[in-house]
Amino acid sequence: MFNKFSFSFRSKILLIVLLTGIIPISISGYLSNLKYNQLLEDQAHDITEQALKQGDGYISMYLSELEWLGTTIATNQLVLDTLNKSYSSIYDKVLDAGNIKQALSQYIYSRWDIERIDLFGFNGFSFTGGYSMYPIDESEPWVQEVMKRDGQPYWFFSENQDQDFIEYSRVISQNGQPLGIIRIMLPSYRLDTIIKKYQPNNTGFLFLIDKNHHSLIDSNEAVSEIIDRLDYSHNTKYQYVSLHGMEMLVTIHQLESVDWIFVSVIPREDILKGTGQIREYFLNTAIVILLITLTLVFWIIRYFTKPIKEVIGLMHDVENSNFTSRMTIRTNDDIGMLAKSYNRMVQRVRELIEKVYEQQRLKNEAQWSALQAQINPHFLYNTLDSINWMARMNNIPDISKMITALSMLFKLSLSKTDKYILIEEELMYIKYYAQIQEIRFSDRIHIYVDVPDSILKYKIPRFILQPLVENAVIHGLEPKEDPGEIHIKGGEYEDKVFFIIQDNGVGIPEERLKELLLPKPNDSDHSQHLGLNNVDERIKLLYGQEWGLKIDSIENMGTIVEVWLLKDFLKGGTSQ
Q1: Contacts by 267-273, CB closer than 8 A, 24 or more apart
Q2: In the chain, which residues fall in CATH 3.30.450.20?
Q3: If 0-12 CB within 10 Å is exposed, 13-18 middle and 19+ buried, where does residue 560 land?
Q4: How many helices (H) and strands (E) does the chain have?
Q5: In Å, what is the CA distance from 356 to each residue of 344, 348, 349, 394, 454?
Q6: Rounded to a whole number, what is the distance in angstroms from the first to the last CA of the chain?
Q7: Does the structural domain 75-192 have CATH classification 3.30.450.20?
Q8: How far are the Cα atoms of 44, 194, 546 from residue 61, in angstroms, in the given order?
Q9: Using CA of residue 249, residue 254, residue 255, residue 261, what is the dihedral sign?
Q10: Rounded to an integer, what distance in angstroms lies between the CA atom of residue 91 and that of residue 127?
């Protein structure tokens, strides 16, 4: 990663230390902050849930008192007698309504929270704080719901004359026979004074909704927006809702005694107020630790990299052809070993330069002799053989090996004049070519051949595979700094023989790959005719335009070239 930037060795180590310090601390701080926030949110939820349970218990007790009052009135003998009567005149109803009002006054005036108590008889009698000429409308939804409950209490929300009410209702019956309905009306704002005792904090708020998600108390714009955005199927302990650009922590609690739901809303920023100071403290501590660490590391690195700086200075002397400089050995550790290796290397380089100089002088003399004699190919082969023996005499095995491989290439070229050669002969070209390239690149390049014996006797046009291998070496592996490999695989499939040349070199850019096999104008340069385009054109001439090379390449990863040939054509040799 650092090779793309001109950093010194010291700078790279400092940068690594900085990264290895910042990254873990940052991740640790981030995860700690998340965990702390989670704990605060869980704690806020638990406190809110506890408060809501207390509120649930208080409201349940409060509603139980009103239900007991409703039951007391529903079983009052005067009420039962009134609802059992058959009336023949309005006067009797008015008279009984006065009696009922007097009997109920003790309940109404003894409680501050009851707005009104109504009685509706199925015999046509109606009492709504006094005589009412309007009988009960059994088609109203709340009446139908009360009748379904068969004497069980029913709590619901209603609006009457621009005022909201919480209403209790139940069926009045005697001996299993329904006689009418009692309704107790409570202004919703009076219940609001009760639940405000359990409000989460100063900035949060609490409200009640019924099973139809209708607000029973404090039906303002914010409450309506919260109700619309709540996910009532949420299975987690709490959920978040966005309100006017703020995240609100919402806790839902189902009341046990009635089909109502407590909804608590608290701004998230109020819960996490303390985390800002903790983050600032953590950040300041981390910065101080990093500064101390970097200071110590800088001085340590400076001490241990001083010999490396000395080596760099000596290497500059070598670049300027000064091979007499030597590094002083002060220790027996890795740096001392480096100094010894450097001194041996400089001495060896000096000897090799002198040796190469002498070899170059001999080579120039050999080239001059060859030009003087106007050598032909056979004479060149004999001369290469002579150079081979000279290399052996001078104990230069690499040059001897390269000369031998080159001589064998010349020998194979001179001994074969046919247009077609056996696959095994083409592979021999590649073998000797591979030897030369492996020596040239100091074993940085390796060429492997994996071709089955069953296809070695087929004939192919001369120089079909070797140019592809050469192209992979020159354009694929030579520009690459790391070691590279070329794999040559062959096989047969139905009536075809195929070869795959694969390298792990620098690859071909996508734009260049599209133009690679397009027809090109003739060029007098011989190497042009041994390239990919040349091989592709020769295959097309033999088989037709639908044949040719197939090239796949990924830049900086490698290239694959496929060659497909017909078996029957190959068996026919030059006659076809």
Answers
A1: 267/203, 267/204, 268/41, 268/240, 270/201, 270/203, 270/204, 271/40, 271/41, 271/44, 272/37, 272/40, 272/41
A2: 75-192
A3: middle
A4: 17, 16
A5: 18, 12, 10, 12, 46
A6: 56
A7: yes
A8: 26, 12, 91
A9: positive
A10: 14
Backbone angles phi, psi at 470, to 5 degrees: -60, -40
Q: What is the pLDDT of residues 307-354, one digit of tens each?
A: 777 777 777 777 777 767 776 776 777 777 777 777 788 778 778 888
pLDDT at residue 413, rounded to an integer: 64
Q: DSSP assignment of 207-241, as one string?
A: EEEETT--BSS---HHHHHHHHH--TT--SS-EEE
Q: Compute the distance between CA of residue 546 and CA of residue 114 in angstroms, rounded to an integer.
A: 97
Cβ neighbours around 459 below 10 Å, total: 21
The residue among 418, 426, 567 whose CA lies nearest residue 501 is 426
Other CB atoms within 10 Å distance of the CB of residue 233: 5
At 113, list the tokens: 């929270």
Structure tokens at 495: 């009536």
Token pair, residue 407, equals 């001589």
Name the β-bridge partners of 345. none
CATH fold of 447-575 = Heat Shock Protein 90 (3.30.565)
3-state SS string for 103-130 = HHHHHHHCCCCCCEEEEEECCCCEEECC
d(CA 443, CA 123): 113
Which two tokens mark 123?
């015999």
Q: Which residues contact 324 (CB under 8 A, 6 or more apart)?
A: none
Q: Where in the chain is the domain with CATH 3.30.565.10?
A: 447-575
Report the length, in residues, of the chain.
576
Give the tokens for residue 319. 């670049």
Three-state SS annotation for 130-150: CECCCCCCCCCHHHHHHHHHC
Q: How far is CA 335 from CA 301, 306, 430, in A?
A: 14, 10, 44
CA 571 – CA 576 distance, rounded (Å): 9
User: Quick one: how far is CA 480 from the chain centroid?
Assistant: 32
CA distance 527 to 10: 47
What pLDDT does 571 receive? 52
Per-residue model confidence (pLDDT) at position 530: 46
pLDDT at position 151 over 60? yes
Spatial contact of 480 and 472, defined as CB atoms under 8 Å apart:
no
